[in-house]
Design brief:
The structure holds two protein chains of two kinds. Chain A is α/β, with parallel strands linked by helices. In chain A, 49% of the residues lie in helices and 15% in strands. Classes of the chains: A alpha/beta, B mainly alpha.
Chain lengths: 231, 121
């Protein structure tokens, strides 16, 4: 084979491989500018005590988005149940005092962080905007979070594959996709990936059942937008 | 004596000409390194007490992904080039499928991870 042709193929193959990976996983967002009103937004995320690799992955994925699209962001990783309570509450209190829109990302198995937040003054809690909870069966907390003052609450109804949903959801929500659309798109992509997992696992994963259990739902204002002042 | 010199030169030349068979194997073997390194980073970062500071955790993770993506894609591409130029078509096709494709896909995955983790795409 001619050298020039071989060079062409050797350059084309990595590009093809990248295109396949993008097509099979997650699309590229070309517009990555922070939506308007960044100075009004802050976010807190908390990860429960899971394996070191899960803790590492959650943080490496989440924190850059929070830091880029919110004026202030705080990330907590628990080393045991109940860990970080004081730091989390005190930081949330400060964030609610300083920012009119505070989003919470509860990256934890079935949890009761709602009890921590309930202790804050109601006037402060009214600054809570979106609460996203990865916890299995924690969708049922939705009405309580809305009663506490959250504008919207997104959760999962049963034992779920919430990390798959969260991966797509965070990227869409922070890039300005309205809550309802971000949720729909992420649910669809999660279903697609679970169907692929069923094929790759030779049927060991029951995609239909897991999708039903994992489908995210929203309580509160589904029309919420990431851009400040456009709820 | 001269004959011996010629023989060893020829052998060395033959060996150096065989690099195109070594790089695909290296490309494939290298795929074991990134998962292991990332697991080591996570274990060090979330040991109790931490063995890796928070600022180091981020920097080392990103550097590991850069290295993993760069080396995988480089070795994969160089191997494809070498095989296409030097190997017989059947051998080239076989080694590209078995060794180069996993390395290239691995590299693409690490590159995509890197760009997603940096919130650049």
């Amino acid at each position: 084979m001619k050298k020039s042709k071989a060079i062409g193929i050797a350059v084309l193959f990595p590009c093809l491989a990248y295109a396949v990976v993008v097509a099979l996983t997650e699309r590229v967002f070309w517009n990555t500018h922070a939506p308007l009103g960044k100075e009004r937004r802050s976010a807190l995320a908390i990860r429960d005590n899971v394996s070191p690799f899960q803790k590492w992955g959650s943080k490496q994925f989440t924190l850059p988005y929070l830091e880029r699209y919110y004026d202030a962001a705080w990330y907590f990783t628990q080393t045991h149940r109940g860990d970080c309570k004081d730091a989390f509450i005190s930081t949330l209190n400060t964030a609610l005092q300083r920012y009119p829109e505070v989003d919470l990302f509860l990256l934890a198995h079935s949890n009761q962080y709602i009890d921590w937040v309930a202790g804050l003054p109601s006037e402060r809690r009214s600054h809570i905007r979106l609460v996203y909870n990865t916890g299995c069966r924690d969708l049922r907390q939705g009405p309580s979070w809305v009663d506490l003052g959250a504008k919207a609450y997104v959760g999962h109804p049963d034992v779920s594959a919430s990390p798959v949903f969260y991966f797509f959801f965070l990227r869409r929500w922070t890039r300005g996709t309205p809550l309802h659309d971000a949720m729909e798109e992420s649910n669809n992509l999660m279903r697609l990936n679970l169907a692929r997992a069923e094929v790759l696992s030779f049927g060991n994963v029951n995609a239909a059942k897991l999708s039903r259990a994992s489908e995210a739902f929203c309580y509160g204002d589904e029309q919420l937008r990431f851009q400040s002042g456009q709820e | 004596m001269e004959m011996n010199n010629c023989d060893s030169k020829a052998a060395r030349n033959e060996q150096s000409r065989r690099w195109y068979l070594v790089t695909p194997a290296l490309a494939l073997l290298f795929q074991l390194a990134p998962p292991l390194l990332l697991w080591l980073i996570s274990t060090a970062a979330y040991a109790n007490p931490r063995n890796l500071s928070e600022s180091c955790e981020r920097r080392i993770s990103i550097l590991t992904l850069v290295g993993a993506a760069g080396i995988s894609l480089f070795l994969g591409s160089v191997s494809v080039f070498g095989l296409l130029i030097h190997a017989r078509p059947r051998v080239a096709a076989l080694l590209i499928c078995i060794c180069c494709a996993p390395a290239l896909f691995g590299g693409a995955v690490y590159l995509h991870c890197l760009l997603v983790f940096l919130a650049l795409i």
